[in-house]
């Protein structure tokens, strides 16, 4: 057979199998297909089944083949999440690794090629969706089924936690994401739990969670179950379902002695966009704002639906605790456009309420976006600047019980970056209220004529700099250097070149060098002018900020106070939460562990602090109550249903038994450290134990009432 006939046969084979040329030219695919054909020649039917099991094991990332069948029976979390993506009917092998889709013996090569054709034509959104489903499925593959039918999940793989560790006295329970891409969601839930008003609202919400009182595996991510197989399960709308799941999570976090809790029961309802942005490492503030708006919107729909239910149901009456949660003022703040002149002048300089009312046109917001720059480097200054620069200026007409703020940090410039960000422990919003200011807008540098002129000069200089740099294509510096090298190394005069041409070629490189030097000098001069203009702008902005701080320190503007209760920031690629306990102590929640920190570490503002990674802060209104912290906590515990209390108490007993068994097993197996007489080894593990006659005393509960 000659070469032409071989090429014709090859083309005919390509047409029959409909294999793209790009795939045919891939050496890896050819090698994979050849390996599959050779394997089919050597293996029998039993060996073929073994290879199929191996492919399935590679698809789930497992080493133990006995786990393959369990993984197939595991329900996917997408059914619980009620995501918008429809279920796919094609083979789940598309979620596995591509090198596992090899040929399965003789005659199986075409099937492998067709699956590759589907992947090549798949859209980017579809690939992201499948990757997310595989990520969620990988966590559910760890679920095991006990004899009673209850699921016993394993802890998330991204979590490095010592199960023998016990919660430190006074520490909050650490909320952990089911997988790493939802760490921001778990941290945001931790921050919401730290806000007293939010915790009270969800504990008081109705209807209560009646899915079951068995919470033995809730801390690992399993939903509450009921021991009765015939127990009815109410099917609620998504917004009501989220409220009752948050109610269970907050109740468990209030009464449980567990050191951590996987928030899979709540995170499984997260919108698909939140999961996608968390997986592709979007800006943390964006991910947090998406999930926060989802929580706020769900609560609003829940309140509206439950109100309609009360009005349309005979003999349905509201209860006293409904006022704790049936209000949109929990999360929503409102604002209106400010005025150039007061709506009505103050009389005798009094700061009392005005006879004029705020305008009817108001905007509601669930959170505020702040920007940290070279002038505004603390929470209050950034908030004031954000309101002053909102259009022609805006003022707050009503503030929510809990105010969340996203933080955006300005990028460093040639002159340096912004100063460290300082988080105010307490802020007063009186000076930002529409009624207190009579609608008069805040001072803003953009309304100063001198500031407008300086800003216009700065923009012109930056445009000139971009032209000198060659923003239209290749950098001007690179073009000039290339031309210089050409005339120096390539376009040299030859033997037959006339004198005039030789002189021109000899002078070209020095002339280009002069142009290059002039461009560099112009760039340097432009940078100096830009720096000078920016310094003048920053000086004027600093004057405005100083006037605002002096105004805010006036005693008449210190009635509406908000206290910091949570801070979220990035540290080495991981999301960290700083939360405040009711007793005023601060704790750092990272990797499922709670570590006590000082207040200075929370406020930050120092060069060594990770203030540039802060992306979310939560403030709660200071309530003027006469009750003590212990009384407030007792009142919140009374909102929890008795069935939930019993379930959590049973889980606490189980946890104490687990710790006791671990202590006894350690005592029965003497270690080298204990034999050497090193004191405090057991205490360092977070477990208090006393030994008498070879027995361990059961540890006391770390929780105090």
From TrEMBL:
Q: Where is the composition biased (Basic residues)?
A: 95-107
- Kindly provide the name given to this protein in its UniProt entry: Uncharacterized protein
Which residues does the annotated region (Disordered) include?
1-53, 80-118, 342-365, 669-705
User: What residue spans carry the Acidic residues bias annotation?
Assistant: 1-11
Report the InterPro entries cross-referenced here: Ucp6/RUP1
State the source organism's domain of life: Eukaryota
- PANTHER family tied to this protein: UBA DOMAIN-CONTAINING PROTEIN RUP1 (PTHR39597)
